[in-house]
Design brief:
Blueprint (H helix, E strand, L loop, with lengths): L2 H4 L2 H23 L14 H21 L4 H7 L3 H13 L5 H27 L1
């Protein structure tokens, strides 16, 4: 992918979604088990700082994509984060996913695919 591909609005959305999901995993890794007022002890973890940087990166790529992608479409596509976070938690944190949860993840992905259909029309206009 060359640099112009990465600047495409739908590439920006994909990067935003991946950074957002990654941020959740990194924040979980850095949260630790220490008890402290408001969780300030977690700010000592490099995982937390990586999660914060990823969150900021997600916001910046989201804002860049919103310059050209209709909010109603971008927000519908953002639903994929509800599948990405549990999948990332399963892969990288060894968290269990029940059968019902797998069905839910599948339904979320199907919903995003159905709502993404208009993206092909919008993409032709970008």
């Amino acid at each position: 992918m060359n640099s112009s591909d990465a600047r495409h609005p739908f590439a920006q959305l994909a990067i935003s979604f991946l950074l957002s999901a990654g941020a959740q995993v990194w924040l979980k890794l850095g949260a630790g088990s220490e008890e402290s007022a408001l969780g300030f002890a977690s700010l000592q973890s490099p995982w937390v700082w990586l999660g914060i940087v990823a969150t900021i990166g997600s916001l910046l790529t989201w804002l860049n994509a919103l310059r050209t992608v209709p909010l109603s479409l971008a927000f519908a596509l953002a639903g994929i984060i509800h599948a990405l976070v549990p999948l990332a938690s399963w892969l990288f944190l060894a968290e269990a996913i029940s059968g019902k949860r797998w069905i839910g993840i599948t339904l979320v992905i199907a919903g995003v695919v159905v709502s993404a259909k208009p993206a092909t029309i919008v993409e032709g206009k970008l």
